[in-house]
Every structure is written in structure tokens, then in C-alpha cells.
Amino acid sequence: MAMDLGLSQATASAFLEAFRRCEPGANDSKYFMAFPALVCAAFSAEVGLKTILKREGISAHGHDLLSLFMQLSDEKMIEIADETGISIEDFAAHLNHSKKAFVEWRYIYEVSGEKMISLLFIGKFAAAVEAAGLRMKNAV
Question: Which tens digit of pLDDT belongs to each residue from 123-139?
């Protein structure tokens, strides 16, 4: 299946914008918007990572953010991690903890028990992936 890189980058950016509009405090909705924000940011990061990977000549599949991230060139991994402004130790811990964010949080209503994740990290990660992807797009 061919990937339209322009459309995939635009899709990642659109879901990042949806995250920003759903962030707690960003709107006056009567609904708790943190869950939709998290799912949108995780999906944005996933599509963005797949777009970068395709630009690097790698066809990637799946929803595991850590697995997708680890397939990137060392240069891109460092660029994205640095862009978040988070220490490399905290970045690695958060990414490992958040690797299945899209899968786990889109069906959060089916899970019993307490689940914890950093909405701030997922947002920063998605924004860093978007920035790296846009730089690649503009360099072409």
C-alpha cells in the first residue's frame, strides 16, 4: 500500500491540533476532554512517526510508539527527544510507559482499575514528532 506523505503529515498535524483543542483548560466543554486529547495526540505521534519512517525508507506498521520510535535513525530519535525538552531518562521512561497509548486509551471505558499516563508527555512527544516531520518535508 502506497503512503501519501503529504496527506499523512497533514493527518498527523490535524490530530495534534485536535489534541490542543481538547486539552484541559483549552475549551469550556461540559465533557472531560482529556481522554480524547490523549487519543488524538497518540494517534498524531503514530502517524507522524510512520511518515518520518517512510521518508527514511522504512515501511512501518502497528500502534506501538516505542517500537516505531526505535526504528528511526539515531539522528531523528535524538532530534525528537531533544525537541520535547525532557531529560533523556524521563523521555525514555515516559515513552516506554506510553508506548500503547492509542490502543489502551481509545477503549479506556472497557478497562477496570486505575490507569495513569502523562498527557503532558504525549502532547510534547506528538509536537516534537510533528516538528521533525515538517522539517523533513520542507527539506525536500
Answer: 999 999 999 999 998 88
Contact 44, 130 (CB under 8 A): yes
Beta carbons of 71 and 60 less than 8 angstroms apart: yes
Sign for the CA dihedral angle at 36, 37, 40, 41 comes to negative
Q: What residue ranges define each of the domains in the chain, with the CATH number in brackets?
A: 5-139 (1.20.120.330)
Residues 6+ apart with CB under 8 A from 54: 3, 5, 8, 60
pLDDT number for residue 129: 98
Rounded distance, CA 116 to CA 34, Å? 12
Tell me the C-alpha distance between 135 and 137, whole Å. 5
- State how far the Cα of 61 lies from the Cα of 138, in Å rounded to an integer: 24
